C-alpha cells in the first residue's frame, strides 16, 4: 500500500477516536477531538498532494480518499448536530449531496467512466473541514454568531453547487449511455 493510501486509511481510523472524544463531556475532550479532526484534515491534504506529485494515484485511493473524507466530515457534523451546535438540515443536505454524487459515481463506474474529484468538490470538502473546526473551537450554536451563520450559508451553497457541477458534467454521460 502506498503512502497516500496509508494516509487515507489513517483518516478512516481517526474517525472512531474523534467520535469517542467528541461524545464525551468537557472542553478537554472537545479540544482533543478537534485536534484529531485537524489531523484527519491534514492527512486529506497530504494524501492528495503526495499522490499527484509522485504519480501514486490508484483505483483503491480513488475509492478510499473520498470515503475517508465523508466519514470524517459527516461523523463530525452529526456529533455537532446532536450537541445542538449545527442545524440538522445542514447535515441532511451534506449527506444527501454525498449520496447523490456517490450514486452517480457508482453508476458511471459500472460503465467504465471514472468520476474524479473536481475543484468545486475540493473547495467543498476544505470549506466543510474549516467550518467544523470553527464550530468546535467556538463551541456555540451556529445560530448564535453572525459569522457562523454566514459560514453555514456558505457550506450549504458550496455543497449544493459542487453537487450540481457533478450532475451537470456527468449527467450528460448518463443520457449518452442510455441510462
Structure notes:
This protein is globular. The longest helix has 31 residues. With 179 residues, it is an all-alpha fold. It is built from 6 helices and no strands. It has a single domain, classed as CDP-alcohol phosphotransferase transmembrane (TM) domain (Four Helix Bundle (Hemerythrin (Met), subunit A), Up-down Bundle), CATH 1.20.120. The model has no long low-confidence stretch (mean pLDDT 92). Helix content is 81%, strand content 0%.
Summarize the entry for a quick read.
The protein is mostly helical and 179 residues long. The protein is built from 6 helices and no strands.
Q: Helix tally?
A: 6
CATH domain class: Mainly Alpha
H and E string: HHHHHH
Cα-atom radius of gyration: 17 Å
Assign a percent range to the helix content. Answer: over 70%
Total strands: 0
The best one-word shape is globular
Strand content: under 5%
CATH architecture: Up-down Bundle
Distance between the termini: 35 Å
Task: Domain count, please report it.
Answer: 1
The residue ranges in which pLDDT falls below 50 over 5 or more consecutive positions are none
Which structural class fits the helix and strand makeup?
mainly alpha
Amino acid at each position: 500500500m502506498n503512502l497516500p493510501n496509508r494516509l487515507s486509511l489513517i483518516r478512516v481510523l481517526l474517525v472512531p477516536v474523534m467520535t469517542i472524544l467528541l461524545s464525551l463531556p468537557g472542553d478537554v475532550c472537545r479540544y482533543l477531538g478537534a485536534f484529531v479532526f485537524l489531523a484527519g484534515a491534514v492527512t486529506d491534504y497530504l494524501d492528495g498532494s503526495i499522490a499527484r506529485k509522485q504519480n501514486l494515484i490508484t483505483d483503491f485511493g480513488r475509492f478510499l480518499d473520498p470515503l475517508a473524507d465523508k466519514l470524517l466530515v459527516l461523523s463530525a457534523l452529526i456529533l455537532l448536530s446532536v450537541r445542538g451546535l449545527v442545524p440538522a438540515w445542514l447535515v441532511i443536505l451534506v449527506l444527501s449531496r454525498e449520496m447523490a454524487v456517490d450514486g452517480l459515481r457508482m453508476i458511471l463506474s459500472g460503465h467504465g467512466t471514472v468520476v474524479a474529484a473536481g475543484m468545486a468538490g475540493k473547495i467543498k470538502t476544505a470549506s466543510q473541514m474549516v467550518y467544523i473546526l470553527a464550530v468546535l473551537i467556538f463551541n456555540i450554536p451556529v445560530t448564535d454568531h453572525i459569522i457562523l451563520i454566514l459560514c453555514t450559508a456558505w457550506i450549504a451553497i458550496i455543497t449544493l453547487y459542487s453537487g450540481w457541477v457533478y450532475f451537470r458534467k456527468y449527467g450528460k454521460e448518463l443520457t449518452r449511455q442510455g441510462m
